[in-house]
Design brief:
heterodimer; A: mainly alpha; Rna Polymerase Sigma Factor, Chain: A; two-stranded antiparallel ribbon; B: alpha+beta; Neuraminidase; 4-stranded antiparallel beta sheet; 10 helices
């Protein structure tokens, strides 16, 4: 346990023991942090419910074997109490959202009234498959940390500033790291297309061109619209 | 190609058989408090676990805002740097040399000033630091580091504070842990108080002890901070609207904002009891509860009236459905409900605690 968290552990233990003054201090110091975190997760105020419900668990209304079961018993000082509270809140929020998404009905498939497009070019589809396979394999060669960076950026849509904070580095470093990862991915994809698929330079260029052109199954306009709203500094998104 | 990367990441099979990260490990990773091995284990798991990626993203989004300040552009005042450095060197020399110049054992105002800095000022500064730390914690989470740069005098102040703490100013590596800042400020406050109570330094043994800080000013500072914190503590958001409510003056009055918090109107509630929680199901409806069984309700967004509550027990939470139905929670964990605007209350129930999910 880090020395700087000893006070937090002490406060947590006092709260778990039901010390009224400790509780007063805890509420005074940590309620704003919890509420701010809840509002950041859900600006409409939906996460405040979770924050409020945490107090009951932290207080420990249930007893087991004559001892109060307080959430504070799970805090051992591996981090600051504030960060731990945010983590517990984030966990509850994420689990609730995952359940909600699971229960959400899937959108109905719209009838496609548009005239049938031209039959797909088998060569084109083969080349795209090659690129996708090479890319998938290239991603597995990345380090865990780099894969996590990619996931944070592409899947979780965190901003560069948020990623930088998360990895405890400067925003410019986060930007450089992403550029490096994408360059490495591109090099690895090209190498695999050359070595594994036996493609020549022109075919590789054609494959990459196709991949860049291919609209894919996703509606890119939505993604691009959302991306435009993201608060991030200018960043080259091409490989 | 970006889309391809996204698709490839999304299509990856979850290869994380290990159990998901528990909140403490997650928090330790965020705080940078884990050793290299544990850190690597967290990253190895999170790299392939969608749930833990979401958790990390949620943590990143709830990171308290820090006024990091952009780089200070010296520009036209670059020439001042050597002058300031020279002035600082002279001041330091004078300060170091002073005891030798004035060895007189008698009481001296100069030595007293040199050896025992005014504790009241120290305490005041420490109190101000704490207040700033609280204010930083209270700052809206949406504030980004890239937002308006602080004024130069603030930067100077920060530089001074960091120098005092034996640190070097590095605007490019902002401190991210506000809690740590608050703790530092508290420690400084404590140190200031200790300094105030410490005996005079041996350099001037005959010098009269520095007067301790007036207790009234310390209490005033503490109560000011407490009042400030309390005033900022409870803010109620009306879902789906720009209406906000907050408790001020230690929870004895309410303020309402109809423009998302840009402007506020005070609304007296007519009782001098501390409010502890509130719930606003509609823009003109707000329930608030407080100590001693206080329940007040506003149904027009302006006037408040007190409702009768069966017990004089402290109330800590309220969840309202509309102007008629609400459930309040007592400090001892019981739950009372009303469906007729507080005319009658249901029998108390034990508040159910959800199991903790690890």
């Amino acid at each position: 346990m880090a020395a700087s968290y000893e006070r937090d552990v002490e406060l947590a233990q006092q709260c778990a023991a039901g010390d009224e003054r400790a509780w007063e201090r805890f509420i005074l110091e940590y309620r704003p942090i919890l509420y701010r975190a809840a509002d950041a997760l859900d600006p409409s105020g939906g996460a405040r419910e979770i924050a409020d419900s945490l107090y009951a668990e932290l207080y420990g209304l249930k007893e087991r074997g004559g001892e109060r079961q307080s959430l504070f018993h799970y805090f051992h000082g591996k981090s600051s109490l504030a960060t731990w509270l945010r983590a517990v809140l984030a966990q509850r929020f994420v689990d609730r959202e995952r359940v909600r998404k699971r229960l959400e009905p899937l959108p109905e498939i719209e009838k496609d009234d548009a005239p049938a497009s031209a039959p797909p070019d088998p060569d084109r589809s083969r080349q795209l498959t090659l690129v996708r396979r090479a890319l998938d394999q290239a991603i597995t060669t990345l380090t865990d940390r780099d894969r996590l960076r990619l996931a944070c950026y592409y899947l979780q849509e965190l901003t560069l500033a948020q990623i930088a904070k998360m990895f405890r580095e400067h925003e410019a470093t986060a930007s450089r790291q992403l550029t490096r990862i994408r360059r490495e991915l591109r090099d690895e994809v090209m190498r695999r297309l050359k070595d594994d698929a036996g493609l020549g330079p022109h075919e590789i260029a054609r494959c990459l061109e196709l991949a860049a052109e291919d609209p894919g199954p996703l509606d890119l306009s939505k993604s691009l619209g959302a991306a435009a709203e993201r608060k991030e500094s200018e960043f080259d998104r091409s490989i | 190609m970006d889309r391809l990367i996204r698709d490839a990441l999304e299509a990856r099979e979850p290869a994380a058989p290990a159990p998901c990260l528990d909140p403490e490990t997650l928090a330790g990773w965020v705080d940078g408090a884990l050793d290299a091995r544990a850190r690597a284990a967290v990253e190895a798991h999170a790299a392939d676990c969608a749930r833990c990626q979401m958790l990390l993203a949620a943590m990143a989004r709830t990171e308290p805002a820090v006024a990091t300040g952009s780089r200070w552009h010296f520009g036209g005042i670059r020439w001042l740097i050597p002058a300031v450095a020279a002035a600082a060197a002279v001041a330091l020399w004078v300060e170091v040399r002073e005891p030798a110049v004035a060895p007189s054992p008698g009481p001296s105002a100069a030595t007293t000033t040199m050896t025992a800095p005014p504790p009241a000022a120290e305490t005041f500064r420490a109190a101000a630091d704490r207040e700033k730390a609280v204010a930083s914690i209270e700052a809206p989470a949406k504030t980004k580091p890239s937002e308006p740069a602080p004024r130069r005098d603030e930067l100077k102040e920060r530089q001074l504070q960091k120098k005092e703490a034996g640190q070097t100013l590095d605007a490019a590596t902002p401190t991210t842990d506000l809690r740590a800042r608050a703790e530092t400020s508290n420690k400084r406050a404590a140190a200031g108080a200790e300094t105030a109570q410490a005996p005079p330094a041996p350099v001037a043994p005959a010098a009269p002890a520095a007067p301790p800080p007036p207790p009234a000013s310390r209490e005033a500072a503490a109560s000011r901070i407490q009042a400030f914190a309390r005033a900022q503590l409870i803010e109620i958001i009306t879902p789906g609207s720009a209406v906000r409510w907050r408790f001020i003056r230690g929870g004895s009055a309410v303020e309402r904002s109809a423009d998302g918090g840009a402007t506020w109107q005070v609304q007296p509630i007519g009782v001098a009891v501390r409010l502890t929680a509130g719930s606003s199901p509609a823009p003109s409806v707000c329930w608030a509860v407080g100590d001693g069984g206080l329940v007040v309700l506003s149904t027009d967004g302006a006037a408040w009236h007190r409702l009768t509550f069966p017990e004089a027990v402290d109330l800590v939470a309220v969840q309202a459905r509309d102007e008629k139905a609400a459930t309040v929670r007592t400090a001892d964990g019981r739950r009372f409900s009303t469906t007729d605007g507080g005319l009658t209350w249901s029998a108390p129930q034990e508040f159910p605690a959800a199991p903790f999910k690890e």
